[in-house]
């Protein structure tokens, strides 16, 4: 038999209690509230995690290239292409 | 009333989201701030491809920043020729370019205005530019020492002489 959403462990006890209290207060369905909270908390967790990971990756990439003095580009050409192009130009090929 | 832990959850979430937004904005904006004036001037011109290259290695120990301006079409090349005062070639040389032979020109230009010729009193007031007529490209090398200038300019001359 399927476990009720309000009893699932991935819904925090605070949200579970809050859903029950709200359902009792307004006479609604605590299960529906639990489902909604669970859905939203999962979405928020995913968004925050993805944003933090993206920010860390971006910061690491730009920081690493800036501090290590590694070539990097802004604009049309990618770094490898730009280096190759300038080298080719300087060697008159 | 919302329980305290839930409030805390949303507060922490909001702070994390704000920090993330700041980090993302910084990661996007910081590289944009570190580009040359020339890059900014020509960026968005539909007739040109513009690239700013940081730390281009000119040899094993030296690296300089470079702005690359590449004409996409005749109009773009005309703009570059006018802005950087690139003269018309005599017909014989022009024919060579049309036959696919490149003629790279290197010159020193003023750091404050690259369309002007070099400052002959203080060489450190100059950058080096390379012009390829075949590729319709201009490279501006931002030099800060004589060693960097020599590396680009004289090594290039030497290479051309040795090639022949």
Could you explain the architecture of this structure?
The complex is a heterodimer of chains A (93) and B (164). With 93 residues, chain A is mostly helical. Helix content of chain A is 70%, strand content 4%. Chain A contains 3 helices and 1 strand. In chain A, helix 1 (13-26) packs antiparallel against helix 2 (30-68). The longest helix of chain A has 39 residues, at 30-68. Chain A is rod-shaped, with a radius of gyration of 26 Å. Chain B is elongated and about 85 Å long. In chain B, strand 4 and strand 5 form a beta hairpin. The mean pLDDT of chain B is 83. Chain B starts with a helix and ends with a helix. With 164 residues, chain B is an alpha+beta fold. Strand 1 of chain A pairs antiparallel with strand 1 of chain B.
Strand order of the largest sheet of chain B: 1-2-5-4-3
Mean pLDDT of chain B: 83
Assembly type: heterodimer
Helix percent band of chain A: 55-70%
Summarize this structure as a short list of keywords or feature phrases.
A: mainly alpha, 3 helices, rod-shaped, B: 164 residues, five-stranded antiparallel sheet, 5 helices, 24% strand, elongated
Gist of the model:
By secondary structure, chain A is mainly alpha-helical. Chain A has helices at residues 13-26, 30-68, 79-90, and one strand spanning 72-75.
Outline the secondary-structure elements.
The complex is a heterodimer of chains A (93) and B (164).
Chain A: H1 13-26, H2 30-68, E1 72-75, H3 79-90
Helix pairs in contact in A: 1-2
Chain B: H1 4-33, H2 37-42, E1 48-57, E2 63-71, H3 74-83, H4 91-98, E3 104-110, E4 126-132, E5 137-142, H5 146-163
Antiparallel strand pairs in B: 1-2, 2-5, 3-4, 4-5
């Amino acid at each position: 038999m399927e476990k009720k959403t309000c009893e699932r462990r991935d819904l925090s006890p605070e949200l579970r209690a809050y859903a029950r209290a709200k359902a009792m207060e307004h006479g609604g369905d605590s299960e529906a509230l639990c489902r909604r909270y669970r859905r939203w908390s999962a979405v928020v967790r995913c968004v925050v995690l993805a944003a933090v990971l993206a920010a860390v990756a971006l910061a690491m990439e730009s920081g690493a290239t800036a501090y290590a003095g590694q070539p990097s580009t802004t604009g049309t050409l990618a770094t490898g292409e730009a280096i190759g192009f300038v080298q080719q130009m300087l060697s008159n090929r | 009333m919302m329980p305290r832990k839930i409030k805390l959850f949303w507060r922490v979430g909001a702070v994390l989201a704000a920090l993330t937004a700041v980090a993302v904005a910084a990661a996007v904006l910081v590289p944009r701030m570190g580009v040359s004036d020339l890059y900014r001037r020509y960026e968005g011109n539909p007739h040109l491809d513009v690239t700013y290259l940081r730390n281009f290695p000119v040899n094993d120990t030296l690296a300089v920043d470079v702005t690359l301006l590449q004409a996409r079409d005749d109009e773009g090349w005309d703009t570059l020729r006018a802005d950087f005062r690139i003269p018309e070639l005599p017909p014989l040389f022009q024919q060579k370019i049309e036959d696919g032979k490149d003629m790279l020109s290197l010159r020193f230009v003023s750091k404050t205005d690259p369309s002007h010729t070099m400052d002959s009193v203080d060489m450190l007031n100059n950058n080096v530019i390379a012009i390829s007529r075949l590729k319709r490209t201009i490279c501006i090398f931002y030099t800060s020492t004589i060693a960097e200038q020599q590396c680009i300019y004289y090594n290039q001359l030497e290479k051309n002489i040795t090639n022949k």
